[in-house]
Design a protein that fits this description.
Helix content is 0%, strand content 64%. The protein has 131 residues and is an all-beta fold.
């Protein structure tokens, strides 16, 4: 079973820092991108940052210069270092990964393998920033 497991959320004062981690586990062939989304009460889920297998990154404007996303491809793990936190960063943070699975398949011509795209979501971790 493939899944994402997050850790690192919590309560912090404004100006403080937190580091989120998200590890993908299971029979994953490759991961194209990994990222962090957040959803504040009463608001839509938004992309915070993502990182591709070649190291390219994207950030929402509101976190540029404060948050840093990084990735350990060997461990299928993505991190989000959050500095200078503000009360408006309070939200549930969700990890996301676009994965490719390789599965055995028996065709007319015999056993082979197929590749399947699967988007994964973590369970969410709460980040609360007090003023």
């Amino acid at each position: 079973q493939v899944q994402l497991v997050e850790s690192g959320g919590g309560l912090v004062q404004a100006g403080g820092s937190l580091r989120l981690s998200c590890a993908a586990s299971g029979s994953i062939f490759s991961i194209n991108s990994m990222g962090w989304y957040r959803q504040a009460p009463g608001k839509q889920r938004e992309l915070v940052a993502d990182i591709f297998s070649d190291g390219r990154t994207n950030y929402v404007d509101s976190v540029k210069g404060r948050f840093t996303i990084s990735r350990d491809n060997a461990k299928n793990t993505v991190y989000l270092q959050m500095n200078s936190l503000k009360p408006e960063d309070t939200a549930v943070y969700y990890c996301n990964a676009e994965t490719v699975l390789k599965k055995p398949y028996t065709s007319y011509f015999g056993p082979t393998e197929v590749y399947e795209y699967l988007e994964l979501w973590g369970q969410g971790t709460l980040v609360t920033v007090s003023s």
